[in-house]
Write a structure and sequence with these properties.
Elements lengths: L1 H24 L8 H5 L3 H4 L1 H24 L1 H21 L3 H11 L5 H12 L2 H32 L2 H22 L13 H24 L4 H23 L7 H4 L2 H29 L12 H29 L1 H21 L4 H29 L5 H28 L2 E4 L2 E4 L1 H23 L18 H10 L1
Antiparallel strand pairs: 1-2
Length: 481
Amino acid sequence: MAALRERLAIPVLAFGGILMAVMQTVVVPLLPDLPRLTGASAGAVSWMVTATLLAGAVLTPVLGRAGDMYGKRRVLLMALGMMTVGSLMCALTSDIGVLIVARAMQGAAAAVVPLSISILRDELPPERTGSAVALMSSTVGIGAALGLPLAALLVQYANWHVMFWATTALGVLGVSLAWWAVRESPVREPGRFDTVGALGLAAGLVCLLLAVSQGGTWGWTSPRILGLFAACAVVLTLWWRQQLRAERPLVDLKLAARPRVALPHIAALLTGFAFYGNSLVTAQLVQAPTATGYGLGLSIVATGLCLLPGGVTMLLLSPVSARISAARGPRVTLALGTAIIASGYVLRIADSRDLWMIILGATVCAIGTTFAYSALPTLILRAVPAGQTASANGVNVLMRTIGQAVCSAAVAAILVHHTSLVAGAPVPTLHGYLLAFAMAGTVALVACAAALSIPTDRASRETPRTGRRTGARRDEALEGA
């Protein structure tokens, strides 16, 4: 039985990562109808997405640090449990206030991937770590690609609460499997939890992401948005100083400032931006009315199916990305992935009218994302001590989230300024979409340059029997970073 649990640990953790991505996307097909279903305004309904984004961004580094200190399995189960309870609350209510709170609880699931990657590093022998980490990283795209069409089918043919009952059942399954199959990692970073640092980071991130996500709605020069950006600058400056003085900081800024850690974080920010442009723009373009001359007028279900090949490709190619990292190093894999993303946008610019070309371009972007996302955690694992892997990967995931939020705002700004009237309603022009593709492709090339700037690392030494990192290995990682 113990051997069976050990063999199933990787697929169980991957299932948790897929659940996290599914939970983030299932609400998308509902957004047009939620004002009618809940009796709330469209602005209030949009908070069902914003609340998840904000909670995920805040809780990912906090739960990562808690996992390093108190046990990664314990915190992983807590994150999956919060996600499941949030889904159950959504299934039981139509009150918009409760729905927003429930969606914020589901944001805790964003910590599942960095916690799982840290568990894999601690528990697996070195020859299996690379492929397992690559699979965990690809679950973000796989879950997003699966979640959209499945949720759309449920919404189209059943009561909308059924969708949340289904995700609740999946959540219960995920928690049960993780409790049964995943062992607690023995690697800990003892000390007192930095509550002041956690509150300061939360306040700064809420101000930043709220301003970025609501800038298009409230107006970029409105007092509220400018005030949020100013508050973000002040709070994060004070937080930075507090972290440098803290004995056990939430985020080790001295470690994070080293090139082998800082450059992967920068690359994660840029890759998150480049990756998100693909799914965000594709979903809008194929649903555009045929009267525009370029739109295909597809339903939300068909739109999800257009993105599905990319998700399947990510699953199939995750072992390939691990082999490239083993042979050439994760720095090369990251550079290759971001270059492939850029080439996918070249295809999107060349032809965004034919469905097969749209699917091909989106799939190429997904392939590049697989390589890039599998390399990022490996770079972090090689550059930080074992006791800080969950918190460091949590920061890396946070950078991806910020990149996605900035991409959403940037794409919205471009499309708003490039519209034409179709049947009396403003619709983005094809030129606007092509500009968005060009912007995302350019950011991917900048990410490629950042990847190539990452210093190479020495080959890591593992204990031959268990594959777990020794104290000497952790000290070497710090010295070499």
